[in-house]
Design a protein that fits this description.
Largest sheet: none
Order of helices and strands: HHHHHHH
Structural class: mainly alpha
Shape: flat
Strand content: under 5%
Number of strands: 0
């Protein structure tokens, strides 16, 4: 989490170019990695060990279903919607991708 925040601060401070279509305006790989780590730790605390892997597979399948099978509206929004509208809309690629 610290590395992600540091990367964001340095990029903004140096006005370094970044492609917002990759992760969004404020999001980056290190923040995604921190979130995955936190979710995995929470899953291990809340679920029996034998259920962690099936729940992870179910989450991945549900994610793909929502993105691809359900008429593609969410995918179109992620890829083509204009910027603006708050933190979630500005970072939709990193949060939902």
């Amino acid at each position: 989490l610290l590395l992600g925040a540091l990367r964001l601060a340095v990029l903004k401070l140096l006005n370094y170019q970044e492609h917002v279509s990759e992760y969004g305006t404020h999001w980056n790989f290190f923040l995604s990695l921190a979130c995955v780590h936190g979710l995995a730790a929470g899953a291990h605390r809340c679920l029996p060990t034998s259920m962690v892997m099936p729940m992870c597979v179910m989450c991945v399948l549900l994610h793909q279903y929502v993105l691809i099978v359900s008429d593609g509206a969410l995918t179109k929004w992620i890829l083509t919607a204009p910027r603006g509208g708050g933190f979630f809309a500005d970072n939709r690629e990193g949060l939902l991708g």
